[in-house]
Amino acid sequence: MKKIKVMSIFGTRPEAIKMAPLINKLEEEKKVESIVVVTAQHREMLDQIVDLFAIKVDYDLDIMTPGQSLSDISAKILIDLEQVLITEKPDLILVHGDTTTSFIAALAAFYHKIKIAHIEAGLRSYNKYSPYPEEINRSLTGVLADIHFTPTINNKENLLTENISEGDIFVTGNTVIDALLEVIEEDYSFEENILNRIDFKNKKIILLTAHRRENLGEKMAEIFSAIKELVFEHSGVEVVFPVHLNPKVRKLAQRILGDLKGVYLIDPLNYGDFVNLMARVYLIMTDSGGIQEEAPTLGKPVLVLREVTERSEALAAGAIKLVGTDKEKIIGSVNKLIIDSAEYNRMINKKNPYGDGKASLRICDYILYCYRLKNVKKEEF
């Protein structure tokens, strides 16, 4: 039986989450030899997802070092990945999204004339410094890619305006919805025990995540100051903040929010805890990209702590709202969702524009179709 060798390369927790359901589909496919390479751009947070989804890793480059710079990450991946590509000689590499791992892995594959499929292609903010460095990572990966799997029609149209051939683009939905639906449980017991003691039914619980490079410093201080004022103003509001491992984030969070009643500063959560927490909170405040895609499936309004977003579909649908990092604007936006039930209901009653849980199946089938191992390709999302 003819097989194709497909190598999946990723290095961060968000990539691992979104690649996991696809890797499992590839492992099930008899016409595919699946190889998994992790760079461990993020170590501990990556390992949690690999374990949760039982992903078999064939090569672990283990590049992470304390205080690593973007240059450190890029150079290590480019050098260390070369021997893996020479040894395995894959027919196709899969990279995901907008990380430094994705861009540098695509560059390494290009140097060896190996075909590249880019999952979650075509998202654009058109501001090269926001999100930084993700906007450029994703754009440059798109320049190198041979196959572009876009989550939405809008993402496809972005690529068409960049002169990418329509025949090289396939709309799939986002694999993060596939992962989310695998992990959500109605009667879930949290591993982080403090979450089992929170009164989700009678309190308005806000989930906060904040870690982006462009928000470090004064902007993040504004976000945390807004949180401090909100919990003082509303006795029924509590905030859960899984604090990113970045020392700059942790130090600032401890200084402004540490020991504050109604604010739970906890370590980063495993994926099962995190998505089941999202399913139970009242609203979400975040500078993350992936959460903007997941929350509409769960019916949770999202206030985006950024000035721009490449998730324009959720913005157009009204499921998310850009509030930036200005303290007063954040407070005003949260207050409106707490007080105005009509505004709250407008945000939660939206169909998720990002997927239906079948993106991984579409991608796997399309790869087989491209290599003439299937005669008919599935319809686009």
From TrEMBL:
SUPFAM superfamilies: UDP-Glycosyltransferase/glycogen phosphorylase. Keywords: Isomerase. The keyword Protein biosynthesis does not apply. One of its GO terms (molecular function) is UDP-N-acetylglucosamine 2-epimerase activity. Pfam families: Epimerase_2. InterPro entries: UDP_GlcNAc_Epimerase_2_dom, WecB-like. Residues 25-367 form the UDP-N-acetylglucosamine 2-epimerase domain. Its EC number is 5.1.3.14. Belongs to the UDP-N-acetylglucosamine 2-epimerase family. This is UDP-N-acetylglucosamine 2-epimerase (non-hydrolyzing).
